[in-house]
Amino acid sequence: MTNSPLFWAGFNVFILALLLLDLLVFNRKAHVVRMREALGWSVFWILLSLGFNYLVYRWLGRQAALEFLTGYLIEKALSVDNLFVFLLIFSYFKVPQQYQHRILFWGIIGALVLRAAFILAGAALLAKFHFLLYVLGAFLVYTGIKMATSAGEPEIDPDNNPVVKFLSRHLPITRNLHEGRFFVRKDGIRFATPLFVVLVMVETTDVVFAADSIPAILAVSRDTFIVYTSNVFALLGLRALYFALEGLMRLFHYLHYGLSLILVFIGGKLLVSDFLHIPMVASLGVVGFILVGAVALSLLFPKKEEEEIEVRG
To answer: What pTM was computed for the model?
Structure first.
């Protein structure tokens, strides 16, 4: 059933309809997204994802449903790093809050297309070359260790970003926002606005993060349908999660280490998969325990004020 082109087309039409409903109906006018609205949308997307998870259980069985839920949780957790980078990008370019939703919307549209390509290519390679499982496992372990030993907060330098430099050299760019548009026409010449530059940075940033998240989910399931749909539903709630957590992201300073542990665990599971089978229920339990533990530690042991000042400086 899930291999049917008609089914895949129907699923993508359903997702596109949800996104268009969000953009053209509920968020037709540019506005500042308040905490209450963001939390409401976050709850909606989470409930929708859990509802789809139940449909997966009824269609494909318990194992597929557990794989979907595990992949969804991993992608959702890894997206927190994306959100922090988005915050830095918006702050650097001084993007007004009322335009941030529009940028994130089109950024997610692009992310869905790019990740679909990554997932299809990755699943095909893993199906054909079994040894790539060990390469993937080692990569995840390495990424997890590197994440744990890094400074903890992602850095961004738009002035030295090659994408920004390329756009500046090859496109005429205005200095004004022009009411949230990405392109404007002046004297017969089409100009890109600063919001288009921000959108491109958001897209390229997501490609970098996909290098971690896609292998992590492929390590959980090699069913293209499960991997793709869990990614899609995690991305759908990314905008609402950004506005809900915008002022709270700095509180979860131990989540960074929790994510590194998850990547090491998933990578290690891959490396021993031919010798030791770890049930999906156990994997889901480990991922959930690490996430809850990281959040709890962040709340119990908040970052000291002088440390926050040092990071901001």
So the answer is: 0.70
Q: How many Cβ atoms sit within 10 Å of the Cβ of residue 4?
A: 9
The domain locations on the chain are 5-312
In tens, the pLDDT along 91-116 reads: 777 788 778 878 887 887 887 787 77
Q: ∠ at Cα 179 (238, 31), nearest 5°?
A: 45
Residue range 255-298, pLDDT digits in tens: 778 878 887 887 787 788 778 777 767 877 888 888 888 888 88
DSSP 8-state symbol, 153: S
183 phi and psi, to 5 degrees? -140, 145
Question: CA-to-CA distance for 230 and 56, rounded, in angstroms?
Answer: 11
CA-derived radius of gyration, the chain: 20
Q: Are the CB atoms for 219 and 262 separated by under 8 Å?
A: no
**E-state strands within 114-188:** 183-186
Q: Which amino acid is at 253?
A: H
Handedness of CA 267, 269, 275, 280 (dihedral sign): negative
